Structure formats: structure tokens, C-alpha cells
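quick one, 389 residues, struct below
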Amino acid sequence: MKKTILAVLMILATICTTGCSTIQHHVAQPVATVTGKVVVPSGQVPTGIKITVAGDTSNSAYVNSYGNYNLEFKESGKYLLMARGENFDPAYVWVDAVVEETTKPEDISMSQKITGEALFIASLIDFPDAKTMSIKSISPTWNQQVVEMNDNGINGDILANDGIFGLRMNNITSGYQQYSIVWTNNDGKETTVKDPHAESTYNNNSTIYIPEAAVKQVKGKVTSDLTGVNYSEVKIATKKGSRTAQLNSDGSYVFAMEGSGREYLVFRSENFHIKVVPVDLSSVNVLELNDTTLASKQSGELRVMLVASDFAKCENPTVVGDFTNWQPYQLYDDGTYGDETAGDGVYTRTFTGIGAGYHQYAFNITENNQVKDPYQESGDSSYSIIQVK
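---
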């Protein structure tokens, strides 16, 4: 009996010394699983959207038709996930992944691309030695071939000082734009590289698609409580000011728009309060609107309006300005505080008793994201400017 037990122990010892390592190689390595979702505008399908990881583009995944994606990480940590697709502006989300756990980050909200515009983003995770970052046009070239990106919360950058640089370019020729990223270190040395998160490549260059317009027309006329007005001072705009025009002197207009659902017309001038008009482009190519009445500015009055759909994420928006002592004041879409129509996606606030002159302001579209007014009367490098009579 003792000899039998001894023989068994010797066999087990032999297996452990010669076979355990082999067995261990077949045991799955623990990973951190990230299960996320990409959200696109209503009526759109997230086809072709790719999720890549900043600093490790070999780890990537495509979303399915529902916008879902899955990624695995060998180590716990905080990762930056970049989302790119030919039909949508790029977007990103941070995620804290933990080994042997499944983490669901915030949804990545992606906006449909605007004709003639391109949004570029780049992060210090991919270029840790960069002090500044720029976009260089290759083909077709821009008038200013190299344009610096921002990390100050404006001009395409989403959040200031987060190490993610952004740049929104306007009036770009439709089609495929070839470009590169130029980054500069603390010594001023420039390095030109491909975008590690590019939508595609052509001629070995990073490439982004600029959509062509599917143009529709909106016809109408504005009136006001004033007489003898030359309405050519009034500007009409849509989609964050990407398309603008001046009204005819009698207030009439024929304005080209894009879209297949609810869009917004914004009227603006120094003598009238801003006016936002929702329009439905879902079933017509030519839309004739009823007359739109503009309210003339009265002494001490100041009105701001924010179109929520202009931004991928807009939560409890507020306005800050020198007239609020730079404290956030809530904007409303409930028919109060000067808001005309509750629930139409247009947030408003009307102030009275404001001193005459020019005043600076900005919008907080989320708790940590401040932007200028896309339809501003005028502005400086940091703030929009409005005139009070």
C-alpha cells in the first residue's frame, strides 16, 4: 500500500514539473472587457464606424448596426477610445477598464458631418512629446496650408486643457481631403506624421471625407415692430453658422439648407433680438414659411438662444458673461424666461436692466464644456459679443 501511494505521488510530481507550464499556457489570460455604444442622429445608421484606442491603434473594433462594440485590454487602466466614420464627425470617450471585469463607458455621441466642414482631433496620448499640434493640408491644399489645433474649448475643441486637441475647418471642398498632423516639441522641432485614427488613407496620406450638399430651399419673409427698416442688415444662418446669407432689403429670403428632418433657421442683427425658427425638411424640397416677426431690442434688454442639436452633447445648458458676473445662469426650453416654445430644442434666456454697450458671454453646454455662440453678433478669441441698446 505504501509503495502504491509513493508511486502515485511520484507521478503527480512528474506531471507538475513537466506539464504544469504547458497546461498554464492554455489557460486564458484575464482581460478587462469594455462594452460600449455609439449613438448617431435619428434616422442614421452607424455603419462603418471604427473604435480605436489612443496609444494602441492595433486594438480596435467596428460597431454593429445597433452601434454596439466590444474591446479587451490586458491591463487595468484609463483608456481613450476614438470613434471615426465617414458620415460622422469624430468623437471620443474615456473608460476606466478593470481586469476580470466588464465596464460600460458613456455612450459616444456622433454628429452627422456638415457639408464643407471637417473636424480633426488628436491627443497627447498618441503624441506625448507634443507641445502644439496642427493640421497640414496635402490635397487639395488650403490657403493657409498648416492650421494650429486648439485645446482651449473652442473652434472644434470639446474640453479645454484635457490633452485632446481639436480643429473645425470651414469652407473645405467636398470630397476626400488628404492631410497630416504636424506636432512641435518644447524645443520647437516639428514632426509630420499620419493621423493614427484616420478614417482612411490614400497615397499613404491620412484622408477625411467632406460631404456634398443635398440642398433644399426655404422661402420666407421677416417683419418687425419697426417701420422703414432695411432688413439687409439681418443675417440668416443654420447648422452652427456653416451656411449664412443676408436678407433682402424688404425682409424676403430664399435660403439653401441641408437635412431630412428638423433643422433650425437663426436670424440675427445688432438691432433685433436673435430669433430661432424650427423647420421640418423631412418631406419637401422647397418649404415656404409664414412671415417671421423679429423683436427690436429695447433699452437694457439682452437675449441669448442656444440650439441644442448643434452640439453632440448638451445637458442643462447655462450662459456666463460679464452681465452675469461670470456666474452660470440657466437657459430654459419650457416657455419661460423669454423662451417662446417649450420643448422645441431651443434654450433661451432674456435679461433686463443690462447696461448699454458690448458684452462678452459664452455657453456651458455641459458642466465642463464651454463654447462660444455659433451665431454670435461678433466675438473675440475667447467669447462671443452682443450689443445692448
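The CA atoms of residues 177 and 208 lie 5 Å apart.
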